[in-house]
Amino acid sequence: MTKEYSNGEITILWKPELCIHSGNCVRLLPHVYHPKEHPWVSPQNASTAELIHQINHCPSGALSYRERE
Questions:
Q1: For each of the chain's 69 residues, which pLDDT tens digit applies?
Q2: How many CB atoms lie within 10 A of CB 53?
Q3: Spatial distance between the Cα atoms of 23 and 63, rounded to a whole number of angstroms
């Protein structure tokens, strides 16, 4: 089941079944990703460019994004 988190410009799509818990997301944007909190993603805490850069470094493909339509 895909979870969605939006900052108003993009929507982060997280597919937990693909996640290998590499920790890249938390290391690159610790002010956005908080694994022990619910919701665990706070996209408003980074710029859209920062979010896209981090998502593009997700090794499992569990994180992707959709631009605002």
A1: 999 999 999 999 999 999 999 999 999 999 999 999 999 999 999 999 999 999 999 999 999 999 986
A2: 13
A3: 12
Name, in order, each residue with C-beta under 8 angstroms of 37's C-beta and a sequence gap of 6 or more: none
Nearest to 16 by CA among 64, 62, 61: 62
Distance CA 50, CA 31 (A): 11
- Token output for 46: 């980074």
39 burial type by CB count under 10 A (0-12 exposed, 13-18 middle, 19+ buried): exposed
pTM: predicted TM-score of the whole model, two decimal places: 0.92
β-sheet bridge partners, residue 14: 3, 63
